[in-house]
Amino acid sequence: MTAQEVRLCGLLLHEHFGEVVEKVGTHLLRSGAQNLRTIIHETGLSVDLVKKSLMVLVQHGACLFSSGRKGPGSPTEYRSGCDRILRILRYPRYIYTAKTLYGDTGELVVEELLQRGHMTMSGTVKTVADRLTQNMEEGRSMDYSEVSSAFSKLVETHFLQRCPKLAGAGTADTSAIPPTPESFPDCYKVPHMTLVGRGKRQLAAEDGEDQRNAKRQKMDSENSESVPGIYWQVNFERFHLHFRDQAIISAVANKLDQTSSEIVRTMLRMSEVTTSPAATCTKPLSANEIFRSLPASYNIPRPILDQYLTLLVDDPMEFVGKAGESGGGMYVVNLHRALANLARATLESVVQERFGSRSARIFRLLLRKRHLEQKQVEDFAMIPAKEAKDMLYTLLSQNLVQLQEIPKTPDYAPSRTFYLYTVNQLPTARMLLQNCYKTVANLIERRLFESKESKRLLEKSQRIEAILASLQASGAEPEQLTEVEEMITAPEKQQLDALKLHINKLDSAENQVDETIFLLESYVNSTATSTG
Amino acid sequence: MAARGRSRRTLSFSVDSVGINRGESLPPTLQQPTPVFPVMEQKPLPLTGGEEAEYLLALKQDFRGAMRSLPCFIQPAAALRDVERYSDKYHSSEHTDGLMDWTPDWQRFPRELRIHARKPARDGVSVARSDAQSAQKKKKKKVREKEEVLIKLETLQKKEEQQSEEDDDDDNTEQKKKQEDDDADGDEEYDEEEFEEVILYVTCDGSNQSVWTGSGLTEGSVLQETDYIMSYFDNGEDFGGDSDDNMDEAIY
After folding, report:
1. Which of A232, A277, A241 has the alpha carbon at shortest distance from A97?
2. Which of A119, A408, B7, B163 has the greatest count of CB atoms below 10 A from its CB?
3. Which PANTHER family match (chain A) (predicted)?
4. For the segment A304-322, what is each residue's pLDDT rounded down to a tens digit?
């Protein structure tokens, strides 16, 4: 829990849950596991506010509670983790992915679950059907069965999962580690439940149908809620696997060509269910299987497929590896190595954009050759000595390059020691990840500052929009509308447009930095699991 | 390292291997922190635009806006201003409506997090509970409350004469204690400590009825138990706060 992570989590909590939850959340992040009394005492908030904030945090999975460390009688302790709160940055990406895979219905289901934290299936289906009905034309409404089928599809592909049952929330919990959702065998099973009904429009035009629906809804709601407390949440890990696969496929498409990326996509699709999330590489697939599973639009002959596979194996990026000769050649996708290469490319591009292409050349050289002396750097990079020295020192002062001493004698006498320059990929990636968190926090703060500066102007424009909307709804003449519109003067309108542009840019920049965060985080986590 | 070399001209490390030649001088030492916004030699790349980026942006802003209106967005109790005003009594309940909309499943939360919401002292009705487990209790309450509305109307008339001074102070815990003692409902669980420290949530009778019974009561006068709409209680302190930039329109 670094300082930058805590700062960013605080800003995210403030924006999405209000400042009370922010205070409680940052206090928990900084101080570790605490019980209720300590939290109340140290944050100085009222009891009810603290209780409500804790409930909100638990509801959204940001805080876990367990019985105290001193034994069964001690008060429950609450602890919070940065990871879950930092996911909030990625919510738009999750919703967009659901939309591309399962359409508008899937998009709204995921959005509802993200907004509420945990929800029952029936609750989600009802809310989503109502929302979809709002946007449909008059007279049509959304059937529950369609929404339920989208929900079930999301659960089958593991994008949604059941919340782990908390063993006796009021009683003592003997296990120290809270159970993960995966430890329950029913994690991905949709309960057999029929939800009959249609979405309700808020302003009901047809009273008769609505009354009938309302009656049926009441009956069904009693049926469905008899299933005791099965709550669903979004499975972030599955989304992350999806993003990782997408990153690999687009990297292959950029480096090689479209057909190779299709081959890799087919291989990844075939190994979706057989590969565990922490696996280093997918299960070996034979060239025959790949040939059979290629999409119908890509009818390439078999020898061409073999050539493509050989090309992929020989590529220095090592996305695909050969694992054997049976079945026409067994091929695997090297997931961890691909992630490492993607992270390395990110580091290189960071150095290039910040310090120029010659410094980037030195950086790449050091990554490849591991340890080099000052003179060797100058020779290999073909850069004159003075400039190479300058660049190396700049990189060294930014901590992107490290100095390694190799003594010739046991007393580290400077005249008899080798000084080698080196780049360690993992610590550098971690450092850049912290820089990314700091960047996003700065972007958010700047955006809040800009909105605060122009708060009065924003409020005025909101009021005028509300007046316009109400006038239009009540059917006013165009002169009245133009009169109201003219209440905002031209310079104010310019100011508003500039403000909107800045805020959009800052928001968009946050989204983009989050993509880098995802890559670096996946890389760091993959090394942790492989070594640990 | 530099201190030891002060008396002699040589430095502690060999100059050749690190690459500093004899003739060159070291760069000047830094005497103050680096500037907050240093000049960048390379300008950063522009953001990737495109349809996907714009859609993601719209999703993000919509999500933020939607979260503000959900019950999980908790506003702190509004700070009291320097002088109490009559309109505070009617304004303070406006913000707390969203809090009661969310009835969590208490089996998933530790028992100590349960909040027992109190009704304001003006009503003679029993204390409302945010306990969602007991659906049967809810139904009993519905019936009970309808009867008690009638009783309440009578007691209100009596109480208004007695409590004319205490009406303006919603945070009066003594009033609440008195009301607790009068209360016939014996099933309630109290925490001794939270009883003393809790701040009243002013949830009015009107809003609770709309939650429990589902009847479509209109906002405004019923919510605040007055005969006037809420803009009647605007005390004129917000007037004139708009921008004075346009000086060609005279303000009367």
Report:
1. A241
2. A119
3. DNA-DIRECTED RNA POLYMERASE III SUBUNIT RPC3 (PTHR12949:SF0), RNA POLYMERASE III DNA DIRECTED -RELATED (PTHR12949)
4. 999 999 999 998 888 999 9
Between the CA of residue A88 and those of A59, A440, A485, A514, B164, what are the distances in Å? 14, 12, 37, 10, 49
Cβ neighbour number for residue A290 with a 10 Å cutoff: 22
Rounded mean pLDDT of A166-187?
50
User: Which tokens belong to A115?
Assistant: 């907004």
Return the structure tokens found at A271: 């190994």
Å between B244 CA and nearest CA of chain A: 11
To 5 degrees, how large is the angle CA A478–CA A480–CA A483?
A: 110
Distances from the Cα of A512 to the Cα of A3, A92, A280, B176, angstroms: 22, 11, 27, 53
What residues of A are in contact with residue B57 (Cβ under 8 Å)? 92, 504, 507-508, 511
Q: Which residues pair with A120 in a beta bridge?
A: A231
| Mutation for A interface: B111, B113, B191, most A CBs within 10 A | B113
Which tens digit of pLDDT belongs to each residue from B51-76? 999 999 999 999 999 988 888 888 77
Positive/negative CA dihedral, A390, A394, A396, A400: negative
Q: Which residues on adjacent β-strands are paired with residue A281?
A: A334
Weakest mean pLDDT among A2-11, A476-485, B92-101: B92-101
Put simply, the answer to whether B197 touches A507 (Cβ < 8 Å) is no
Interface predicted TM-score (ipTM) of this complex, two decimals: 0.83
- C-alpha pair distances (Å), B204 with each of A203, A252, B123, B225: 26, 62, 9, 8
Average pLDDT of chain A to the nearest whole number: 84
pLDDT digits (tens, 9 = 90+) for B19-54: 555 555 666 777 888 888 888 877 888 888 889 999
H/E segment holding residue A64: strand A63-66
Closest CA to B26 of A488, A389, A155, A183: A389
Strand partners, A64: A79
Q: Would you place residue A225 in the very low, low, confident or very high pLDDT band (cuts 50, 70, 90)?
A: very low
Amino acid identity for residue A267 in this structure: M
What pLDDT score was predicted for residue B32? 86
Residue in A46, A114, A414 nearest the CB of B13: A414
Local structure of residue A466 (DSSP, 8 states) = H
